[in-house]
Amino acid sequence: MSASLGESVSTGSDLEVLLGLLDLEQIGDDRFLGHHPEKVWSRTFGGQLVAQAIVAAGRTVGPERPVHAVNAHFVRGGNVKKPIEYRVERHRDGRSFANRTVTAYQDDQELFVMLAAFQDWATGLEHAAPQPQVPDPEQLPRVEESFAGLEDRLKMFVNAPHPIDMRYTNDPAWILKGTGGTLDYNRVWMKADGPLPDDPLIHVATLGYSSDTTVLDSIITTHGLSWGFDRIIAATVNHSIWFHRPFRFDDWALYATQSPVAAGSRGLATGHFYSRAGELLATVVQEGVIRHFPSR
Fold this sequence. Notes:
It is built from six helices and twelve strands. It is α+β, with helices and mostly antiparallel strands. The protein has a twelve-stranded antiparallel sheet. Strand 4 and strand 5 form a beta hairpin. The longest helix is centred in the N-terminal third of the chain and has 14 residues. It is globular, with a radius of gyration of 19 Å.
């Protein structure tokens, strides 16, 4: 399903397109080429960079050693009309650990840098924060249904790819805006919108893709603001994920996010992915530039 140089990935459903984006083309030793979908934002979606970089790093390690942490920094906004080259640097291949750096380039300019750590699975002490109590996903509408009547306001979301089935357990920002309410957390059920291959790396990469959605919502809903209604500029600065246990991302996972602080034109958000059974699967921390320009 790999696209040729300069082409976008467009075959099939949005999920099939995402799987095509993760099917990186190897162009040299530890060098891979990634493409954009036909449906794009104004710049490269951060979740796409994270997901493709996870695949690039994982291909240099092998399936027997899973990813346990990634720490990414966004340097420049990507050009959605051009492919992205991922260069992997190998730092260590130890008895239990492996470490990689992945740098994304366009026109020899750095877009994104990610450290990736891999560790053999081992048993040990276990505890985890409990999953919030929320309705089951089958009781909730898909997020696309919440766009009804607001398509002109939410064009950026309506026209974006939807490879992930997302179901808010609370009112999303644009509905909350109409009620005048505020909310210091957001909780969203997520899963791939169809079956995924058995390769665990694809499940990790798909969660990585999804982790860049909804995570900044709690920053703006804390202040009663909404995408599409208020003049907000947001851009991810850095993004980290810790993977705690194996999972399938074509099963439901609850993404529970909150924002502990916003200051200095930046906002910090944290999130936990929980399995349907309540197991804590992954932890996310993202910092973004958040600028609000109130109407005069």
